[in-house]
């Protein structure tokens, strides 16, 4: 999606999971300079398709795939005579509960369903007057944030006769996630992944610490191939994978490289940094891929912003973004992770206190990702942030796919 200085766009995505915590869709958050949330639909069909593809394509367990986008409709767009042509296979149209339900809305939804669109009722609480919509809807999103388990169970009881797929949204805890799973919800959305399931007494594995020590050393502009070899060789898996990378068909070498120092020189610092980071993250087995994907997106977005604004050492911005939520992969709290993983004080203070330029960038990036755009300063460069976010999405997809090819 092209943006210009007089066409400011804010856009982000939030994952929707199935019962195994695999991503099966993303809800798209969108706002333009008029504050409109329907600006996406004013683009031509081809532009909308490019946008949707960029925001909904991922590498999932080694497979490049595209998942549907959930997109909110305003009442004006819903009942308009010139509803835009959209790719029916790749989107789910959300109807928010605050839209007044009358004959005009019911007729409009009927025509969309007949045209092949899937409909989701958003922030839904059952009321008898909504039954005409429930007979047409495919998905119902129940906002469980301020409900007790008993209230959620009652919603399930009332909605079950309508044969809709139930999605629990705004799940904040793993406990509520597990309860919704038991009640029969098929889809899940919320910030439950952003809270680690703490394991008492757990520490960072020594092999993990070695990997992150290497990743930290790669930010040192004065490091040497010999120093990196000394750190790499302590991890047999990393050694094996880096040698596989440099000897892969992609590098078209005349002879095999067998020395780590030679491999470091051959790949170069940028590639070594990327691969070491990816391998370090990939060692955390048994975790939803979206956690790793989110770390890579955040790290790369911070780095893209640092590059565009000509900050010194943009690699440290990458580290700050990536490490800010690393504890989610390690099942320990953030403070314990920062004590055990070797990082510079500047990066630690940026993560813990939002200190310095790196900390400020991290805070702004976090707000952007969450769609908390009102928390961003009024003079922030929305074009830069949207572009950096989109580049980070593309890079994370390619990086995760390349890493899977090594296994």
Automatic annotation (TrEMBL):
Q: Which Pfam families does this UniProt record tie to the protein?
A: EAL, HDOD
Matching InterPro entries: dGMP_Pdiesterase_EAL/HD-GYP, EAL_dom, EAL_sf, HDOD, RNase_Y/CdgJ
Residue ranges of domain HDOD in the record: 204-389
Q: Which SUPFAM superfamilies match?
A: EAL domain-like (SSF141868), HD-domain/PDEase-like (SSF109604)
- SMART domains in the cross-refs: EAL
Ranges annotated as spanning the membrane: none
What is the top-level taxon of the source organism? Bacteria
Please identify the protein, giving its name as recorded.
HDOD domain-containing protein
